[in-house]
Write a structure and sequence with these properties.
Blueprint (H helix, E strand, L loop, with lengths): L3 E6 L7 H10 L3 E8 L19 E7 L2 E6 L3 H12 L7 E8 L6 H4 L1 H11 L3 E7 L9 H16 L7 E7 L9 E4 L6 E8 H6 L7 H8 L8 E8 L9 H7 L1 E8 L5 H8 L3
Parallel strand pairs: 1-2, 1-5, 2-4, 5-6, 6-7, 8-11
Antiparallel strand pairs: 3-4, 7-11, 9-10
Helix pairs in contact: 2-4
């Protein structure tokens, strides 16, 4: 597995601590090229930049033993750019997306730019893995990922099945490495976030968040009659998920590994539908 050509991205931007930690681990596996969003792109899923909008790219150079670029676009676009421009249309051997600052378990995986980027890799015929830690802090401690991820990746790569459209979504609980119970294959849970739209100025008045200049400029530029909101949410366990659901394993102290496929077709419903239509 050494000597692989590895393409890396994330959705937290090229300055995020998580991606730098990931790159340092991946250099053990081969030559690493990074194309990461210029700015954070969380929640972008598989979104791409369309409508003839120009997209800025910059070659940053050597960092952490890898070749770094940034792209002012979504994580999915970063993978497209890496394959089309940097690799010249040739496929890398592996796409790895992360380490995300925050869990991408349960239905969060459907919103995730991190998982979206790994899905983009699979769409292009490349083996792909998404990696996340259940800690939203910019200063998150990734030591638990550093301890366990290289071995997990080695085992996955050594036993990758001959199956088109397959990728892996790996989530780490935010606990000390010595408290990890182990690694378990998991199913994607159906737990979700119940969103709550809160008036933005009310949110600011709570003192929970210090807005940046971009947010303040956005508020100042509101048109007459417009209101600004922020989306907050609490995680809701649907109550029907099995014990091997990824978010349940994380909560119990396990590292979860969810195999997923880009074919979302419901085969059973297809068969049933054929008898109806």
């Amino acid at each position: 597995m050494r000597g692989m050509k590895i393409l890396v991205t994330n959705d937290d931007g090229y300055k995020a601590a998580g991606i730098h930690c990931l790159v340092k681990m991946l250099t053990r596996f081969g030559d690493v090229t990074v194309v990461s969003p210029k700015h954070p792109q969380s929640g972008m899923s598989l979104a791409i930049t369309i409508g003839m909008k120009p997209v800025a790219a910059k070659h940053i150079g050597e960092m952490d033993g890898a070749d770094w670029w940034y792209l002012d676009a979504t994580p999915s676009c970063c993978i497209k750019y890496g394959i089309d421009i940097i690799f010249g249309g040739e496929r890398p051997d592996l796409v790895v997306s992360g380490i995300n600052h925050g869990s991408n378990a349960a239905v969060a995986a459907l919103y995730s730019g991190t998982v979206g980027a790994s899905t983009e890799g699979v769409i292009n015929g490349v083996k792909a893995v998404a990696v996340s830690l259940s800690n939203l802090s910019p200063d998150a401690d990734f030591s638990v990922v550093e301890k366990f991820f290289p071995d997990i990746l080695h085992k996955i790569l050594a036993n990758w099945p001959d199956k088109a459209g397959l990728a892996y979504n790996i989530n780490f609980p935010d606990i000390p490495a010595e408290k990890i119970l182990g690694v378990k294959p998991a199913l994607m849970g159906m737990g979700y976030w119940k969103d709550q739209f809160v008036p933005y100025r009310q949110f600011l008045a709570s003192g929970r968040f210090e807005p940046g200049s971009e947010a303040l400029a956005y508020l100042d530029a509101l048109e007459e009659g417009e209101s600004a909101y922020v989306i907050l949410g609490d995680f809701v366990d649907c109550g029907t998920d099995p014990a091997i659901a990824d978010h349940k394993l994380l909560k119990s102290g396990w590292i979860s590994v969810v195999p997923y496929c880009i074919d979302n077709s419901d085969k059973e419903e297809f068969s049933r539908l054929c008898d109806i239509i």
